[in-house]
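Please predict the structure of the following assembly.
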Amino acid sequence: MAKPIVPQGRKPGRLSPSRVGVYAVLVVSALLFLTPFWVMLVTSFKTMNEIRLGHIMSWPDAFTFEPWVKAWSSACTGLACNGIQVGFLNSVRILIPSVIFSIALGAVTGYAMRFYRLKGSNLLFSILLIGAFIPYQVFLYPLVRMFSTIGLYDSLAGIVVVHVIFGLPFMTLLFRNYYSSLPMELFNAARVDGAGFVQTFRYVFLPMSTPIIIVATILQVTGIWNDFILGLTFAGRDNRPMTVLLNNIVNSTQGEAAYNVDMAATILTALVPLTVYLISGRWFVRGIAAGAVKG
Amino acid sequence: MTEAAQTRSPRRKRRIAWAPILALAPAAVVAVVVYIGAMLWTVRLSFTNSRMLPLLDYAGLAQYRRLFATERFTISAVNIVIFGVLFIVGALMLGFLLAVFIDQKVRAEGIFRTIFLYPYSMSFIVTGLAWQWFLNPQLGIQNTVRGFGFPNFTFDWIVNQDRVIYTLVIAAIWQASGLVMAILLAGLRGVDADLWKATKIDAIPTWRVYLSIILPLIAPMFVTASVLLAVAVAKLYDLVVAMTKGGPGISSEVPAKFIMDNFFERANVGLGSAAATVLLVTVIAILAPWLYSQHIANGKAS
């Protein structure tokens, strides 16, 4: 994540009081931002006896991996005690097709909107865009009825389709804007050479799309992994994603909660998006900017 | 040109380009069936007596009258206003401050940025569970501070009906202010270096430059960040489910959760639809000016 710092503008002077102040504010803020994660981390390595003493921030006295093993393989949701690994596998099974299909559809849609000025394609884009800002709750109930009519409700295919549907506006926006930054002449040249819709896309624009595909992948992987409401509503009992299982494990405990196991499970659930974030670094920020700044 | 010619002379036989039409078909189906169809269906259901299953009778505004007489909903509505205002203002202020401090050509800038933004990469469920544990009055931060020698220290907001909404605000600000920082920092980096030189020559204090000159310059970034935060407010659901389950009692209920509960747990489809419609109208009313200026007006101009 370390990025090269290019010196520009005024030279950093010697350590003046104001510089010390700047660093003090930044370091204190950084510590505050890290505290919740620190607490999760140390809690997950403590025994319940130690947790009951109530030193939430302190380093574990008796370091134990047991909560992690338990969280992964034997924590209970209701009557089933198979740990959060079930949810992990479900999330992976949901994630892979959802990411591939939503990006593919967004790329083709964005490409068609940019280079073929079909009647109504601007209107279509506006509808999708406005739809992206409206909370899922407005569409959810009719969608459930539709899905159960066509037999997609409570299935892996169903949740994948839902992710593709709700990913479409943003993916289209991303690719449409990216292709808008490429010159129309490129497209015309391919057409003059006799390339059709598919060939132009496959041999001219797809090879140029790597950066935007990376951004889209980062956004979709983190977004779909972190989804809760769609997985809860559409995935059904057998395909519940990790976030849903995690919430069940923590919030439906009978008797005393096993906070160490809960926190281990929570960190396990956060691990995939966190890793994506830490590896991708500036691409992640680019994704935010691409979606946010201009349409 | 050719497109125009095609549409204006329907008699002349031309090859219709099927490929792009086919390519846009899925998006068109999604737009018509899901975004328009499902939305209108929800609005329609709000005028029915639907309980567990959708009916197609007509009940006038009965569900809306019921809705506004339901304490669970009025509390939700008040909560989302409190949450929305505090969260957006708080995240914007904190995000701006962080961006300004990072912009002081500090060392290890990348590390600071990574730390401020990492909560945003995680699920609201994770955030909610982490903060639920952190704020746990028996074993969490309250107990720890008491252990440091302040036996009367009290921070039990998460189990306090009047305070619980603020704990949601704190957790959400923790999650989202890094996002604001990232967006505003991009804005600050876009400020012309000559401008800084000019203000140095005029010996204007730095804080004054930020407030009076830079702030107006990066106003569009503030608008963008505000819109993203506002969308998060309207969608607020996961965080509440994970952190407070709407409790204690019903004191931290929010509209999105109210709708979900009525659809899928309380078998109150008509009432849920009415609440969803109210949410829809509110969101559109708030976002319409921005959407118009950002996307539609620009699209026509170009």
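Residues 85-292 of chain A form a domain with the MetI-like fold fold (CATH 1.10.3720.10). Chain A touches chain B through 103 residues (CB under 8 Å).
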